[in-house]
Amino acid sequence: MSAEVTTFANGFRIVTEHMPGIESATVGLWIEAGARHEIEAQNGVAHFLEHMAFKGTARRSALQIAEEIEDVGGYINAYTSREMTAYYARILRADVARALDVLADIVLNPAFDAREIEVERGVILQEIGQALDTPDDIIFDWLQETAYPGQPIGRSILGPSAQVSGFHAGDLRRFVAEHYGPGQMILSAAGAVDHETLVRLAEPLFAPLHARPRLVPEPARFISGERREMRGLEQAHFALALEAPDYRAPDFYASQVFSGALGGGMSSRLFQRLREDRGLCYTVFAQSGAYSDTGLITIYAGTGASEIGDLAVLTIEELKRAAEDMREDEVARARAQMKAGLLMGLESPSQRAERLAKLLSIWGRVPDISEAIARIEAVDGAAVRAHAERLLSHSGMALALYGPIDRAPYLSALSERLAA
Q1: What is the mean pLDDT of the chain?
Q2: Of residues 50, 68, 307, 330, which has the active-site annotation?
Q3: β 225-230/397-403 pair status
Q4: What is the pLDDT of residues 73-119, one digit of tens each?
Q5: Who's near 229: CB < 8 A, 6+ residues apart?
Q6: How far apart are CA 290 and CA 256, in angstroms?
Q7: Residue 50 in contact with residue 80, Cβ under 8 Å?
Q8: Could you please report the per-residue DSSP string of 285-347?
Q9: 37-68 burial, b for 16+ CB within 10 Å, e for fewer?
Q10: With bands split at pLDDT 50, 70 and 90, how would you rate the model's confidence at 1?
Q11: Which of 227, 243, 249, 378 has a beta carbon 3.0–4.6 Å from 222's, enabling a disulfide?
């Protein structure tokens, strides 16, 4: 069944997709505001705000929020990305109204109690500390900062500890006032849901909200650079990025297929060359991520101190070869993996609700799944090779290294090898 969309006069959007045979539903509010919407002094506040939504409202305590969903066997959670913040619940068919009431309450009426702010500040500082102690986690933050230095899209979602330590209720309310208008909200639901019923339930909660101006984030500018952090770890962590297309770019799907063929699975070039043929690493992968105005193809591997040089050089060689001799069978395999991942995701109400919200945000409509499948199938070897050639000839690279990296080549040396 196709998605149904309703838009209130104030810009608030509702999108649903009924899934026959499913007894549960995912209902969520996706807010078009994330880390890249922060000014530098606010870095980390969007994530802090997400945490505080669960710490109580005028009507419910933190415990009551959790109990109201868990008493009926449901699940409630949230996440913050660079361009969105999401609050969602998975419940049974009979509890959709309950979930929507709780979600509306925590997003529209957070208490921002001073004592709860201090408690959650401690939790977030522990989260930041944990990320700093996880090399194959923090290196991606460093890579992002290196690719987009001095820009909102390049900053950490969690924010720096020193800044998080100073946030207060006024900072949270200010971000809400700036970015949580009804025109920045999407109510998305999938599974055992009825569109007209959800619209009727949502109307008294969201239709009275006053529209607010949309603040446009600073445009992204990909910049080549590198960050090297020496530390006495067991492994050297290597992360390399090239600028990729944004969501709406004509070659978006070519980029996705290219990254899949390059490092998307055990049959991929990087996995076969670096792990299976040379034994240089245990983990290696490539992935393509997109934003509204830019994207990144990221390659990651963890290796030993004595192997980091060979691994970096062979990675560049595989990038060059991909532009020259990517075969049709490799492209077909990557297409199949991409289509399967997309279609398998549709079996999950949570993934489907998230997809609906993101597509509506990007396109202003929800394209039928057949459109995406057709665009994936249209990517052939020639398109992938041409995309790879454009990437290597028109984009610089960002490099992040962490651990025992004495023998790791510098970005300048890798760039020269790529251009040779």
Answers
A1: 96
A2: 50
A3: parallel
A4: 999 999 999 999 999 999 999 999 999 999 999 999 999 999 999 99
A5: 142, 401, 402, 403, 405
A6: 9
A7: yes
A8: EEEEEE-SS-EEEEEEEEE-TTTHHHHHHHHHHHHHHHHHH--HHHHHHHHHHHHHHHHHHTT
A9: bbeeebbbbbbbbbbbbbbbbeebebeebeeb
A10: low
A11: 243
| Structure tokens given for 251 | 């070659």
Across residues 279-287, what is the average pLDDT? Answer: 96
Which pLDDT value is given to residue 136?
A: 87
Q: Provide the whole-model pTM.
A: 0.95
Residue 209 tokens, joined: 């909200």
Which residue's entry shows tokens 């595989």? Answer: 318
Which H, E and C letters describe 255-288, residue by residue? HHHHHHHHHCCCCCHHHHHHHHHCCCEEEEEEEE
By residue count, the chain amounts to 420
Residue located via tokens 């522990």: 126
Query: In angstroms, rounded to a whole number, what is the distance separating the alpha carbons of residues 21 and 25?
Result: 11
Any idea of the CA torsion for 407, 413, 415, 418, to the nearest 10 degrees? -90
Could you confirm whether 347 is annotated as catalytic? no
As a whole number of angstroms, the distance between CA 132 and CA 129 comes to: 5
E strands, 168-280, are: 185-191, 225-230, 236-244
| Phi/psi of residue 336, nearest 5 degrees | -60, -40
Distance, CA of 296 to CA of 395 (rounded, Å): 11
Q: What is the CB neighbour count within 10 angstroms for residue 355? A: 22
Instruction: State the Cα–Cα distance between residues 98 and 158, nearest whole angstrom.
Output: 30
Q: Which DSSP symbol is given to 149?
A: T
* 236, 305 Cβ separation under 8 angstroms: yes
Contact (CB, 8 A) for 264 and 332? no
Please give the average per-residue pLDDT across 368-372, as a whole number: 93
**CB of 247 closer than 8 Å to CB of 291:** yes
